[in-house]
Amino acid sequence: MLVYKFGGTSVGSVVNMNHVKDIISSTGKKIVVLSAMSGTTNTLVEISELIKTNELTKAKTNINQLHQTYKATVTELIQQETLREDVSTYVASIFDALLACVNQPHSTLLHNTIVANGELLSTFMFSRLLQQEGFNARLLPALDFMRIDSNNEPDNFYIKQNLNRLIDTSEEADIYITQGFICLDAEGQITNLQRGGSDYTATIIGAAIEADEVQIWTDIDGFHNNDPRFVQDTTALSHLSYDEAAELAYFGAKILHPQTVMPVRSLDIPLRLKNTMAPEAHGTLITNQIHGEGIKAIAAKDGITAIKIKSVRMLLAHGFLKKVFEVFEKYETSIDMITTSEIAVSLTIDDVTHLEAITEELEKFATVEIDDYMSIVCLVGNQIIYHPDTPELFQVLQDVNVRMIAYGGSNNNISLLVNTSDKLETLQKLQRYVFEESVVVGV
Ligand code: ADP
Ligand code: ASP
Ligand code: MG
């Protein structure tokens, strides 16, 4: 069985939903994971924020505006009268529920309940489009099988049991449609897999059913060698290894949610990235195979905080690093980059929830300097630290202020820490030095 995932742009208009319908019309059983229509989750987040700040009239106006947009989409999408009535009634029930949220006290649960509606809407509408077109398609509610545990990890045993039971006991179908992003938590409350989480839903499902392949369909022809939002003339990579893709996703390549690779890597299930708007393009195939050497791709992650911790005794005394790490462990805060000198250690974190408490504890035995608005620029490729072209990247040091470099921690990754205000320039210069002015093998 195959798992297909279509992102926000892919289901963002009636024209694109019809492209999706054509793509999945091939024979063979499949599970199709859908995101919300593009823009919907952002609007729902805004609505939740308005309720939080007590701007209730504005929240209601936004809900009603969104409802109008959906009414127009339904009219264009579904021609068959009974099906259209069915969809309109469902859509109206979702917007009534949203209006009811406006009068409730704001909470994380209320927020999660509000933002879940985007995927509920897109999957219902799309399932009825397939019915109209004569497909044997069924809706599998994600909340009936998708659950995370108290560590926010997928509860794989529960997911596997429930998903397979649902497939076995529901009416036989060729296409099962389900919501990306949304799930239950360990207490059975509605939550989600974080923004962009539908990719992760697809690979969790792929692992649960031991799929032959998971395909992520989006609005670009695969994984590019740099961030196309900031750099011109980036090119699509035909192959990546799981490790390369995981590292790039973790370090900010928006095309994949950071956790997407994990569930399929251990089972060796191929992950393919494809363009809904250009299905004939090769896209990117992600497997355990390694293709090429040297720097293959560059990504950047914002929202990084750098912490410089200096031993007050001016000597990197035995046990100093242990004490530092224990503080981060206590507050369950993971460290991305780290460099040390004789008297200091510099490291970066992206989760600042406990920063104040961490600083307070560190200051008991060290002086602490904090810099925020930093970005990690990450260069990834098999054996890059040994490749003869890699030194080209250090030309960037002449032009931008690089705060920290992690080189050699892994053979396949080099990370640079820069001010976020320098990120664009760094990415563009690296593109030139690394991919345009030298010969790089990594394709
Ligand atoms: P979807 O809604 O389908 O999940 P996303 O917007 O989450 O789509 O991801 C696709 C977008 O990721 C692309 O349109 C592109 O702008 C951005 N992107 C960032 N880095 C990369 C990269 N290295 N390769 C391809 N796309 C990237
Ligand atoms: N709709 C969610 C979001 O916008 C999940 C996703 O698109 O993957 O973040
Ligand atoms: Mg996405």
TrEMBL record:
Which reaction(s) does its UniProt entry say it catalyses?
L-aspartate + ATP = 4-phospho-L-aspartate + ADP
In short, the EC number is 2.7.2.4
Task: Work out whether the entry's keyword set contains Transcription.
Answer: no
Reading the lineage from the top rank, the first entry is Bacteria
Checking SUPFAM superfamilies in the record gives: ACT-like, Carbamate kinase-like
State one molecular function term (GO).
Answer: aspartate kinase activity
Q: Where is the Aspartate/glutamate/uridylate kinase domain?
A: 2-275
Q: In which pathway does it act?
A: Amino-acid biosynthesis; L-methionine biosynthesis via de novo pathway; L-homoserine from L-aspartate: step 1/3; Amino-acid biosynthesis; L-threonine biosynthesis; L-threonine from L-aspartate: step 1/5; Amino-acid biosynthesis; L-lysine biosynthesis via DAP pathway; (S)-tetrahydrodipicolinate from L-aspartate: step 1/4
Keywords in alphabetical order, please: Amino-acid biosynthesis, ATP-binding, Kinase, Nucleotide-binding, Transferase
Q: Matching NCBIfam families, A to Z?
A: asp_kinases (TIGR00657)
Q: What is this protein called?
A: Aspartokinase
